[in-house]
Amino acid sequence: GAVVSQHPSWVICKSGTSVKIECRSLDFQATTMFWYRQFPKQSLMLMATSNEGSKATYEQGVEKDKFLINHASLTLSTLTVTSAHPEDSSFYICSVRGGNEQYFGPGTRLTVT
Amino acid sequence: DAKTTQPPSMDCAEGRAANLPCNHSTISGNEYVYWYRQIHSQGPQYIIHGLKNNETNEMASLIITEDRKSSTLILPHATLRDTAVYYCIVRVDNGNQFYFGTGTSLTVIP
Fold first, then answer.
1. If you write DSSP's letter for every residue of B32-97 in order, what string do you get?
2. Cβ atoms of B4 and B22 closer than 8 Å
3. Mutation choice for B interface testing from A4, A33, A36, A43 by most B CBs within 10 A
4. Distance from B17 to chain A by nearest Cα, in Å?
């Protein structure tokens, strides 16, 4: 299956700052990537679908101006959390669509102080 | 939205088979059943998927009832490393998004 990496694996930032999370497909060209968020002891919640060369599609209730997604190449998608607040602290996970399956990255732990 | 229901937690003795049930009573004819698992603080890992026939791979077996309204994931010889949250997901094959339900937290006991 596809190998997916995320960077950074964890980040701490101050309230009001912006944080960028990278998702890379290391051995697979991905036209579609997905971003999920997971709060402690909860399931994964799909945030948005990232499409290479076009605008991302956001799930209902996800603020597109706050969570900026860029999918500029077939191997890289980025999620920028703008003006982060403590309630944005979460585990952010990306995935790559490969055929009938999805391959998930290891996740990025964001803590906003 | 998730279309599956699973028990919130289960225990299994090490070396025994772990049988994880999933109900998907509203599954459509073209929707597959997928199973993923998530070990603490990691990304989900693909296990197996199927449409209507039983499936087996090196990790697990998937048993789907004839009416396709429920399925069971079987880990034949559970080990401590199988302790994880197991998610059952239904999705149109070659579709896009996966919507995760609440999953089953499996604890393998020594």
1. EEEEEEE-TTS--EEEEEESSS-EE-SS-EEEE-TTSSEEEEEESS--GGG-EEEEEEEEETT-S-
2. yes
3. A43
4. 25
Cβ pair B87:A43 closer than 8 A: yes
Which residue from A43, A52, A51, A56 is spatially nearest to A93, judged by alpha carbons? A43
Contact assignment for A107 to B98 by CB distance below 8 Å: no
Tell me how far apart the alpha carbons of residues A5 and A8 are, in angstroms, rounded to a whole number.
9
Report the chain A residue with the minimal C-alpha distance to residue B99.
A46
Residue A88's SS3 state is: helix
- Summary count for chain A: helices (H), strands (E): 0, 11
Q: How far apart are CA B97 and CA B70, in angstroms?
A: 21
Read off the pLDDT of residues B80-103 as tens digits, 9 standing for 90 and up.
999 999 999 998 766 677 888 899
Task: Decide: helix, strand or coil at residue A61.
Answer: coil
Are A98 and A108 contacting, i.e. CB atoms less than 8 angstroms apart? no
Contact present, B50 and B62 (Cβ < 8 Å) = yes
Decide if B47 contacts B71 (C-beta within 8 A): no
pLDDT single digits (tens) B18-63: 999 999 999 988 889 999 999 988 999 999 999 998 999 999 999 9
